């Protein structure tokens, strides 16, 4: 019969075995195994230090390259867009400093900014699609005929492009300042648009600057909406889509390149000075000669700058 004393002896044996195991294990680690572990740890520490030093050097080199690019931008871009009116359209997540820099470079190229607007997140939110359809009915100018579609982003993008560029399908259309105000004010009231510089309704080209694209649960619809908006502007005027980078499968710049309709030029590194220079040069190429460039460092880019004429 198993009694309390038996259990006590058994438990004592178990704990004794564990204690001996711990002692033996510790002794083993204090020997060659511990030495090997310390050697590996030191190697990893040294490697990390070396990588940190390399990153510091690369960051310094990038900063110097940015400074160099900024120095040569005025001379390189001079005269490329003289007398041209360029509409600037900013999409969600675009870096404000990069946008400001690109606008400055339009000035180097001799262009006039004929308007600067920011299309906000709510414009691309799928839950607002019906609201956009209703808005089209109440804001479309009498001189503009909208396409038959239930896609709110497409319909409203068509109207927005028409009133800010003064064109429909590349042909001039009569647009009044009141038409522009009606559309922009209605979108602003729904937190779908903000106006930094009021559009004049005249554009020889359109510079669209965007962030990385959406990554939330509605990312597919939102990113598709950005592509749709870009294509609607491109139907009216030579258009360049400048992404801060090309990261992510759903990034609109990658979609535009894979579709490659020949109507949208692209730059995939507009977060950097080099990319902003490339964006203005490529837009000038498009406006002046009809050449559609795809520039940057991502997949589908043909180079950093347009080919020399």
How does this model look, in words?
The chain has 309 residues and is an alpha/beta fold. It has 9 helices and 9 strands. It has helices spanning 4-77, 96-108, 121-124, 129-139, 152-165, 177-189, 219-236, 252-259, 273-289; strands at 85-90, 112-119, 167-168, 171-172, 193-197, 205-210, 239-243, 264-267, 294-295. It has a 7-stranded mixed beta sheet with strand order 5-2-1-6-7-8-9, sandwiched between helices. The longest helix has 74 residues, at 4-77. It starts with a helix and ends in a 14-residue tail after the last strand. 41% of the residues are buried. The mean pLDDT is 89.
Q: Beta fraction of the residues?
A: 5-15%
Strand order of the largest sheet: 5-2-1-6-7-8-9
Taking the sheet with the most strands, its summary is:
7 strands, mixed
Described by the principal axes of the CA atoms, the overall outline is globular
Number of strands: 9
Order of helices and strands: HEHEHHHEEHEEHEHEHE
Helix share, percent:
55-70%
- As a whole number of angstroms, the C-alpha radius of gyration is 29 Å
Q: How many helices?
A: 9
Given helix and strand content, the structural type is: alpha/beta
Query: Terminal Cα separation, in Å?
Result: 102 Å
Mean pLDDT: 89
User: Poorly predicted ranges (pLDDT <50, ≥5 residues)?
Assistant: none
């Amino acid at each position: 019969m198993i009694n309390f004393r038996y259990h006590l002896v058994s438990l004592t044996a178990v704990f004794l075995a564990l204690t001996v195991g711990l002692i033996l294990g510790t002794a083993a680690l204090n020997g060659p195994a511990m030495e090997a572990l310390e050697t590996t740890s030191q190697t990893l520490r040294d490697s990390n230090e070396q990588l940190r030093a390399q990153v510091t050097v690369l960051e310094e080199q990038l900063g110097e390259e940015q400074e160099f690019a900024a120095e040569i931008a005025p001379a390189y871009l001079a005269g490329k867009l003289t007398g041209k009116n360029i509409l600037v359209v900013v999409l969600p997540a675009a870096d404000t400093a990069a946008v400001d820099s690109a606008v400055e470079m339009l000035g180097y190229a001799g262009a006039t900014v004929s308007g600067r607007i920011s299309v906000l997140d709510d414009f691309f939110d799928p839950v607002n699609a019906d609201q956009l359809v209703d808005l089209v009915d109440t804001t479309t100018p009498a001189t503009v005929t909208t396409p038959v579609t239930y896609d709110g982003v497409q319909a409203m993008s068509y109207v927005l492009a028409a009133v800010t560029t003064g064109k429909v399908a590349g042909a001039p259309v009569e647009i009044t300042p009141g038409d522009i105000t009606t559309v922009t004010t209605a979108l602003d009231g729904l937190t779908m648009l903000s106006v930094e510089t009021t559009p004049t309704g005249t554009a020889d080209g359109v510079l669209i600057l965007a962030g990385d694209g959406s990554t939330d649960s509605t990312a597919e619809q939102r990113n598709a909406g950005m592509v749709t908006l870009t294509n609607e502007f491109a139907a009216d005027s030579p258009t360049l889509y400048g992404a801060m980078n090309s990261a992510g499968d759903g990034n609109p710049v990658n979609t535009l390149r894979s579709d490659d309709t020949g109507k949208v030029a692209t730059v995939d590194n507009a977060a950097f000075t080099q990319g902003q220079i490339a964006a203005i040069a490529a837009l000038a190429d498009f406006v002046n000669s009809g050449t559609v460039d795809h520039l940057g460092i991502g997949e589908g880019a043909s180079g950093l700058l347009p080919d020399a004429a």
